[in-house]
Amino acid sequence: MSDIWNPRTKAVHSGTRRSQYGEVSEAIFLTQGFVYDTAEDAAARFENSGPDEFIYARYGNPTVKMFEDRIAALEGAEDGFATASGMAAVSGALTSMLRAGDHVVSSKALFGSCLYVLEEILSRYGVEVTFVDGTDLDQWRAAVRADTKVVFFESMSNPTLEVIDIKSVCEIAHVHGAKVVIDNVFATPVYSNAFEQGADVIVYSTTKHIDGQGRALGGIILGSTDYIRKTVEPYMKHTGGSMSPFTAWTHLKGLETLDLRVRAQTATAHALAQSLQGHAGLKRVIYPGLSDHPQHALVQAQMGKGGTMLAIDVKGGRAAAFQFLNAIKIGIISNNLGDAKTIMTHPATTTHQRLSQDQKDYLGITDGLVRISVGIEDTDDVIADILQALDAVG
Questions:
Q1: How far apart are CA 371 and CA 25, in angstroms?
Q2: I need a labelling partner for 79 at 20 to 30 A (CA). Which of 186, 276, 278, 279 fits?
């Protein structure tokens, strides 16, 4: 039945498992283990457990399974494995399928922790990583080789909002048999068509839009059943990166309102970006939904909308950016994103502070850059708050 539902309906109902009590809200199974009627039942469960048979919370849990099934249905994936955080999803998706001697090609424009996994952890264990400008298809063609195992990129980069051509990069990778792993956080499941466009694996930090209310860390790896159950699950259950049942429950509640929140946030982000264009206090406004964005046509074809995130480059560098942030009254200063509250951060000194100056310069992370994650507050109030903060900059 769920195969014919539209996404908003899937986000509310897919994957539901009701207990004998017939609860309306999904049950939270806060248990670390499960009881067997007999020793024979225990042996049989360990030998071959079915989709509704559970052994240990690190391996699987009814509440977590509901969340995995729901977001897999929403995204159009065969299966999913929920993780303790977004970075557990990124590192688990990559490490579970890589070993010493393998080759990875990745875009350079990545979140700082993703860069750490690729530059420090994978290379430490003998995986060769080649970085490219993700928006340059010729660089992808030159870098992907016959022995390339994985291609990795953020579909929309953090924090400068570059958008990568998923379909074209997937075609390049698949010619050589490489698997494509996409961090799809900024696109959100609402605007994602990544599997249709050729992705093999999608990872989300569910901490962001999916929870959407700043409550709990989480992540998910989505892909084929064969990949999830034979590659990811053995790795994750033995290394301990599984999602907690309580987190899964909060994320199930978040999925119910995901579509409504993200569309409202996107509408406000677009209106805000338009209102800030040409502002005397700004060097630039970066928003994928604006016609002057370098990948605007691709954004319209790939996502249909510009999303919930924008970035502004405040004239006057770090001092002016700090002045602006300190003058904000509605928005909050934090390094999270995708929240119901409008959140702002200064990437050069927070999320991307560990990068060298050369890396920051290459990625366009200037001292004046401020990343804005638009919330669900009234659009006029958000715009007025940001304009007054810009006026406060000396």
A1: 35
A2: 186
Cis amide bond preceding 51, omega within 30: no
Sort residue 181 into left (φ over 0), alpha (ψ -120 to 50) or beta: beta
pLDDT band at 2 (very low <50, low <70, confident <90, very high): low
Tens-place pLDDT, residues 300-351:
999 999 999 999 999 999 999 999 999 999 999 999 999 999 999 999 999 8
* Coil vs helix vs strand at 314: strand
- With a CB cutoff of 8 Å and minimum separation 6, the contacts of 233 are 59, 81
Domain ranges of the chain: 2-254, 259-392
Which of 361, 354, 362 has the alpha carbon at shortest distance from 335?
Answer: 354
- State the helix-helix crossing angle for 379-392 and 317-327, rounded to 10 degrees: 130
What pTM does this model have?
0.94
CATH homologous superfamily for 259-392?
Aspartate Aminotransferase, domain 1 (3.90.1150.10)
- The token duo for 27 is 């049950």
Phi, psi of 202 (to 5 degrees): -120, 135
Contacts of 385 (CB under 8 A, 6+ apart): 328, 329, 330, 331, 342
**CA gap 57, 277 in Å, rounded:** 50
| Backbone phi and psi for residue 315, each to the nearest 5 degrees, phi listed first | -65, 135
Half-sphere exposure of 304 (CA within 13 A, CB side): 8
What CATH fold (topology level) applies to the domain 2-254? Aspartate Aminotransferase; domain 2 (3.40.640)
The C-alpha atoms of residue 294 and residue 162 are separated, in whole angstroms, by 8
Closest CA to 272 of 372, 361, 142: 372
